[in-house]
Amino acid sequence: MNSEEYKTVIEAQNSPGYNGWTNYETWAVNLWIDNEPGSQDYARETVLAHSAGYDRAEALKDLVWSGDLFPMPDSGLAADLVNSALHSVNWSEIVDHYEDEA
User: Fold this and answer.
1) Per the domain annotation, does 1 fall within a domain?
2) In this structure, is residue 40 part of a structural domain?
3) What is the pLDDT of residues 19-70, one digit of tens each?
4) Is residue 91, in this structure, part of any structural domain at all?
5) Rounded to an integer, what is the distance from CA 59 to the centroid of its chain?
6) How many Å apart are CA 47 and CA 96, to the nearest integer?
7) 16 in a domain, yes or no?
8) Sign of the dihedral defined by the CA atoms of residues 89, 95, 100, 102, in that order
């Protein structure tokens, strides 16, 4: 990635909203979940198995944080960065996406 591409990515990450989502982190998590039919189905089933609202958002958050969908780094810089980014995800917005599809 050249410096101009890098600058574009950083600007997009720091701007309000991203591709119709609250922020880059929310968009990226949803993209990764939806990228594979297996992870998409697992996430949708987990979300819809809980009562609406907060419970569904917490279930999705727990699913991603647990590493059940994607391997998560255990420690070090990568783990710190992933944890920081996951704190910025709007879990309710991703849940709304699955509810709209149901």
Assistant:
1) no
2) yes
3) 999 999 999 999 999 998 899 999 999 999 998 888 999 999 999 999 999 9
4) yes
5) 13
6) 10
7) no
8) positive
